[in-house]
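BUG-291 | component: ligand-complex export | severity: low

The export step for nicotinamide-adenine-dinucleotide jobs runs without errors, but we want the raw record kept on the ticket for reference. Input record follows.
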Amino acid sequence: MSSTSPRRVAVTGASGKLGRHVVAHLAEHGYDVLALDRVRPADSSGPFVAVDLTDYGQVVEALSGGVDEHPVAVDAVVHLAAVPAPGLTTNAATFANNSAATYNVFAAARALGIRRIVWASSETVLGLPFETPPPYVPVDEEYHPRPESTYSLNKALEEEMARHFCRWDPELVMVGLRFSNVMDPDDYAAFPSFDADPALRQWNLWGYIDGRDGAQAVRLGLERTEPGCEVFVIANADTVMSRSSADLMAEVFPGVEVRRELGEHETLLGIDKARRLLGYQPAHSWRDHVD
Ligand SMILES: NC(=O)c1ccc[n+]([C@@H]2O[C@H](COP(=O)([O-])OP(=O)(O)OC[C@H]3O[C@@H](n4cnc5c(N)ncnc54)[C@H](O)[C@@H]3O)[C@@H](O)[C@H]2O)c1
């Protein structure tokens, strides 16, 4: 943590698959974490407040130190809470929950003078499930979002909303992390089964993000000091497959431009910008967990 890093951070979605890693990682790195979620985390004894983020008043109270027993205002927010994929509930319910939660977090932070926000966008804005092939690989942040579901549409709108919040406040630092498919070490036993059929995981170009590396990206986002809104693709350095990335592209997306020579298992979800501007360096690979 640098001297300019925020110290007391609220994490929304703290009880979720990614949130659990983020809370643990930030605490390990010396941050005071206030966990916020609709449901209590299964395995945490740290400060927690149950909040429905679709209620603006609850968000303001939680972030401002207004909740009894949690009287300290936070100086940064990590916003992860969401219905985390298309098709888990109706499109309208996904949109209503996710858009209201994100607006309320961004607006409450603005009202309270909190100027560091890191939030979860999604790889889906890159055009998943790539029924229309990607424009080129590795895909990156350089082309306009191509949401193909209501869930993804909302993530794309959140990125646009963040740009306007930054326009309204030139000192605001907002970092949107377009996470790939979040994985825990327990998930890796299934990975070798993907090899038989490239079609099984072509929907996200065979990408993934280890929850611990996702947490690293969140911390690096909190350490960013450059005002304005930036979005980053966050994936692991390799794919989920044993076959080479070049081989997979040639078979499954033969017409798509491969923009550079690829490392054998190099991710097709480009993380160059995150490496360059955040110092992101994925430390984990499923290959270290499976014989
Ligand atoms: N899981 C993935 O593969 C993936 C991929 C890309 C992006 N993301 C994004 O990352 C974030 C975290 O995803 P996850 O996999 O940990 O999801 P998760 O479902 O495991 O966790 C999300 C948490 O948000 C909470 N939540 C949802 N709506 C809420 C509300 N209105 N008020 C309070 N809490 C609320 C839920 O209770 C849950 O604990 C989400 O924004 C998701 O869209 C996830």
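Assignee comment: Attached the raw record above. The two ends are 36 Å apart (CA to CA).
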